[in-house]
Description:
heterodimer; A: about 450 residues; alpha/beta; Immunoglobulin-like; Rossmann fold; 3 domains; five-stranded antiparallel beta sheet; 13 helices; about 40% helix; B: about 375 residues; two-stranded antiparallel ribbon; about 75% helix; about 5% strand; extended
Amino acid sequence: MRRLSAAFLAISFLLIPGTAAFSQNGEQAPAEDEAQMDGGISVAVSEQEQDILDDETTGPATADIEILEPIEEEPEPPVRAPPAPTNVDAFDTPNSAGDSVTLTWQPVPDEVDLGVVGYAIMRSKEPDGPFEQVGIATIGASRHRDTDARDIKAGETYYFQVVTLTADEQRAASEIVSAVPEAQWFHSGRWFILILVILISGAILFNINRARRGVDLYIRRIAGLESVEEAIGRSTEMGKPVLYVPGIRDMDDIQTIASMSILSHVARLTAEYDTPILVPNIRAVVMSTAQEVVKAAYLDVGRPDAYNPENIRYLTDDQFGYVAGVDGIMIRDKPAANFFLGAFFAESLILAETGASTGAIQIAGTAMPSQLPFFVAACDYTLIGEELFAASAYLAREPMLLGSLKGQDWGKFVFMIAVLVGAIGATVVTVGGLDPDVWWNIASWFRVE
Amino acid sequence: MKKTVPLAIVFVTGVAMIVQFFIPPWPFNVLAETVQSWVRIIAAGAMALGIASLLAVNLNKVYRQREGWPFSIVTVASLIGMALVGFVWGSAETRLIPVDSPAAYTRFIEAKNISVDDAEALDAAIVEEVADIRAEVETRVDVPVTEGALLREIDSRFQRRWGSSPAQLRSAPLVRDFVEAQPQNLDTVDAIPRAILAVRASVYEELFEAGEFEGLTVEEQQALVEGTFQERFLAAWGVSPAEMLGASQREVRSPFFWGYEYLYYPLAATMFSLLAFFVASAAFRAFRARTPEATLLLVAAFFVMLGRVPLGDYIGEWVPNLAGWIMSVPNTAGMRAIMIGIALGAVSYSLRIILGYERPYLAGGGD
Lengths: 449, 367
């Protein structure tokens, strides 16, 4: 029975067009032998297939032909072999570190009908292989970026094939293409940013220099920062502590760094007024930094004895656990002034509304645009975006720091001109006064890759 | 020196981070990622400082019996409890526990008066027991549940009642045969996975000694071992190794995950859900039309909200169109202006730090 079924399976396999083994480049394997069968059917039998027949039968494959009646049943519909991708090209990925090659190809037409499920990206260091699969592209894809800092080295030649994969595990490999990755020494898609950085940095440095020479620079009044002293004074009068929340990001966030600068000024004032300052933290590194900042401020003012490290404490790394902790402090200790300065997310409104319910004067500031409306609605003063970064310079009133704010304003002026030109250009294109292609070519120069 | 070294480090690092944005080759292509890894390592190390601070503040509060000190006990107990649970049972979502299915099988057939190895009677008794539990679950569950959830509950109750699942009970004689056939005495059921692995090791050894691995890659060798092992195991014991393993142990939620899922998660969700109430109270305050700006905000918000609900469509097509225009034109313009300001502010502030004009990291300016 085993012999019968094995022979039946082997011969059925051979009779189904398209199921014969394919070599890696998509060509049909050469015929090794031919078996003449009853009924005049002649099929090609590969060496491997002949082995199967020889193993499972006592004689040659033709010995069992007379009992193979099932093959006269209606044959299964033929499976169409997928074609290989065409127009395959491999080239050095632009603006890369020499560890990347990009491949493009023409996807197989009728992918869905042929049961194509994707394309395997094969790579080899030799033109003849062996090829190793280094990536998979999805159906419909015509581009793949092969980046591998470990295995791809600049200046060496790599060979690639793109192989069509089907649901019934058929493969059809494309022609072999090669590429030599090279490292580029400058990212050509970032010229615009470099010019902008030079312009803005130049404006800032120029104004810092002007301020150093004693030029009087006008900086507009920021109500939230003017009220810092008033809020701390109120806390002192009421005999209540000041609460300072430095946001929920770690020290690698520029908003947290800016918050530490402001904390230094606030802590100086609380030290001068002998008012306790509470700084609950969500990150241990921020806690450690805040302890140092507050301690230094108390030392500067000559009140090291009033510094209490327990007031600058760690609560938890969890967002809503932290909110619960800070809300608890607000409800229990009833601080008369709350500062929310740093990066905030969904907790912003919970904190600000709890603070508002305790009657504290509240000053908030963040560079998270989506949280600003919540702070505006629930706090007395809000530092909007850039004002958070300007706060330390504004509070310190040092000419050099104020000079940087003036340089920042110049940068803003450049952006205003650019927005104006962009709006006019887009309008002219819309009314038909300018070829859209010309306009998009100009606009694309400002695009950052 | 105390001031110069940190300033130099900040300057060099800051400039390097700007340069890496424009220059692709090594080492600039890995610089940002490497520095981020350092930050993560420092943050992990600093966690000890955080825990020390938490313990110091709360234990001091308990010691001095300050107001609310019992809450500090809960905080410290939770911290230590979760840490211990994680260290002892691991922090993975599930863990495997051994199931003594032969013992459960003996208990079951004795209780049901079934003779040993009477598979038909065993199957009928299991079906009857499952039907009994299903009836019990269906009468007690007062909320609609999916069939999958119902089956899991039945399985769980069956396990609690008999110490093994229905499927494990059915395979129990196979497990018993396997245990009895092992050369060494498997006195604990969790030794079964080791015994299964020992069978696999013997297959590997046999193939190796027969020289079957010659000329094969590592992957091909592994495939040969795995195929031979699976085939032989199935032929010898009537079940695959995975099924044998499944019959001898089961997955349960780890205690750490239980604490996370049923204690921490509802607490965090409760805090988050407060937002809904605070949005209402903040909106009430913001929309009081006391100034022209607040009135404008109120009118804009009214149309945006109306345009996002079916009533807006019912009133007329212009309502959702107006809502869309408010969001995509004035709102987007305002947001973009704020974003440009933020970007410029961040550049200016970064430059002040890199050049050493501002030194928050030196705690007091390094003077």
